[in-house]
Specification:
Layout (H helix, E strand, L loop, with lengths): L1 H21 L6 H11 L1 E9 L6 H11 L3 E3 L7 E8 L5 E7 L5 E7 L3 H16 L16 H4 L15 E12 L7 E12 L8 E16 L2 E21 L2 E18 L8 E20 L2 E12 L4 E2 L9 E2 L3 E13 L1
Helix pairs in contact: 3-4
Length: 339
Amino acid sequence: MKRGLQCNRDRAIAIVLLVLLLSPGLVCSPCASALAQHEAEPIRLVYHASSDCPDEATFVARVRERTTRVRLASAGEVARTFTVVVESGRAPLGRIAVQSSDHREAARQVQADTCSDVVDALALMVALAIDPGAVNPVPAAPPEGSAAASAPASSLAPTARSHDDGGMLGGVDFALATDVMPQLVLAGSPYVGWRATGARLFAPSFRLSFIRARSGTLDVTGGTATFTWTVGRLDGCPIAWPRGVLRVSECVRLEGGTLEVAGGMGVTASRTSTRGWAAVGPLARAEWALLPPVFVDAEAGALVRVTQDRFYFNPGMATAFEVPALGVTAGVGVGVLFF
């Protein structure tokens, strides 16, 4: 009899547990919360936004509106890193980069009418990258032709680098250089280049530019002379600090070309001398996204002249001009980033 009672009691407990499991209304909320927490993916979020755009707390809330399968990682926990940059302006722009634990990356960008719309699109991208079944609580479709409409957010899964990780750029600077010739050099300097568009610290960029500056006739010791400086420049910038609409880069500049000096009036047996030019040195550059993709920039640096020639008219005469070992370079200009 006791054995029969024991069997009946076990069967009753099993039936009650089965009913509880199959009845959504009867499942305890602590159990559901623990299950959701167990299934949630830990992520690290690096968020930068212009002051007039939604803040980080708002962004996190919008991600959680779309999926419950996400939580912020604790210290030391292995997790993917989502770096989000939101820039305000007439055409607000957002960028998102995802880095997995094995350092593979993928990136996308979004442009919309308002910062809030940009944040909504980026939040949906994050949610879909974590949970392909995530939903968008905003019924309105993204503007036709926008990046949010054309690029599926699920492609953020970091399996390979995307072409959206960088973009070509071009523009023109008004360049300044000291001690190239007896007067200050002021000349236009067109350039082309490439730069990474992600928000990480290692966001390299490169520029190739050209300058040709002619002094006109100058009075120098022993007579008059005309100076012509022709150089190409290569700038490599391995490190950048993206902060909203402002980007600051640390660069190294290489210069190569010629410096030509021609004797003028009053010089006996005047002739033209052309010497090679080479210089190298550090450079700092700041870029401000005035109206994306248009930006303005400013730069300054100090270059060591590898070639330091001395020019004179006749042997034994005083030096007409000598290139010093160190010179200052600077410039301001405007450019366009082509994604």
